[in-house]
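Hello again, I could really use a second opinion on something today. I've dropped the whole record in just underneath, so have a look.
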Amino acid sequence: MTAFMRFLTFRGYSHIDTFISDSASDNYATYELLNHWGLNAVIALNPKNNPDNNNDNRKKYPPSLRINDNGVPVCPGGRSMVYHGFCKDRCRLKWRCPRIAGGLEPCEACASCSPSSYGRVIYTKPDWDLRLFTKIPRGSLAWKDNMKQRTAAERVNDPILIDYAVENTRVRGKKRISLLTTLAAVNIHLDAQLAFLIDQNLFDLDALLCLDCAA
């Protein structure tokens, strides 16, 4: 988090609204800090940090509320409810009946559930538990898309450190290493573009170098 704080200090005109990380950042202190900064948290859960395992008394949500391991409410029929958006005015997440909003078949609990044609609705608030009730719900499409960005960024590390030898460089100084890292990242991007063009038969080295003209 120290490096991230430094980045926020020197980010200039960059707009940051989401912090994405693996389970190493899954702790309440991180969620509280991100909430203080007004940032969304997209962090994989670490089962070892479950409050039930640590005698943690941070649970503030209603005892009657049943949730799964991802913080998603469970309907009386035992099925995960469907995320239906974040209410900014009241800072809460809306969840709807999985039969109505998710297109599932009726279950035995439907007879004793909400008689409304809209189906049962449940709201959860991040304030109840910043770790479980994140503004971008775990398992949602938005959460998965953000996680894909993180894994894509992780895959860049090996080429930078190994293929472009930044890990073994003899250069010293943060500015020089930052320059080498930036150049390596640019080259990795060009490598990807070149691979795509070759795959689509859109790259002709002879034409690019005017070898046909010289012949």
Observations:
- Residues 164-214 form one domain.
